[in-house]
Amino acid sequence: MNCLATDFQTRRVAEALSLGDVVAAPAEAVWGLSCDPWSLDAVEALCAMKRRGLEKGLIVVSWTSRHFEPLLQNLSAPARRQCLDSWPAPITWVVPNNGYFPLWVTGDSEEVAIRVTAAPGLVALSKAVDGPVISTSANAAGALPARHGFQVTRYFGQKLKKLPGTVDLMAKPSTIKRITTGDVLR
């Protein structure tokens, strides 16, 4: 069962994200770190926390496919339908970026990973900022992803703002597929 954040808690965390902070929220199977995808400073701070290079690229999530419309409209009709029919769910699609998201989101790739989520914490956060957010596992490179809120605090300290909640401990991290080939990347 997932404990939902109150409106006040959600607004407080969303405000921090809007001001360029990195925040934490429960995703589908693990806790995630989130930030504004259009803020280079925020993405650099997130990558520094994870000890991860910008060249790897990041996943962008939203509560609605509307936030990804500029990317989806460039797909073939069957590919677009495949994305839309699979969401909301823990399925991340790697799609051509076509210059929509900045390089600090896509890394060394011409593609971007996007997902419409049903995870209550990420849904609330995305709705509160009325836009997509970065979501990447809450752990430093090489460490196990946080499955509980206390692990997020252990990894990143008390100052990191986080939404209360839980993840589905029986779930696995999202499947990642490339829309152009159907290849499963994770």
What topology does this entry show?
Elements: H1 7-18, E1 23-26, E2 31-34, H2 40-50, E3 59-62, H3 69-72, H4 77-86, E4 91-96, H5 103-106, E5 111-116, H6 120-129, E6 133-134, E7 136-137, H7 149-156, E8 175-178
Parallel strand pairs: 3-5, 4-8
Antiparallel strand pairs: 1-2, 2-7, 3-6, 4-5
Helix pairs in contact: 1-6
How are the strands of the biggest sheet laid out side by side? 6-3-5-4-8
Total helical elements = 7
- Structural class per helix/strand content? alpha/beta
| CATH homologous group name | DHBP synthase
End-to-end Cα distance, whole Å, is: 26 Å
Radius of gyration: 15 Å
Number of domains: 1
Shape designation: globular
Task: Give the uncertain stretches in residue-range form.
Answer: none
- How much helix, percentage-wise, in residues? 25-40%
Specify the CATH architecture. Answer: Alpha-Beta Complex
Largest sheet: 5 strands, mixed
CATH topology: DHBP synthase
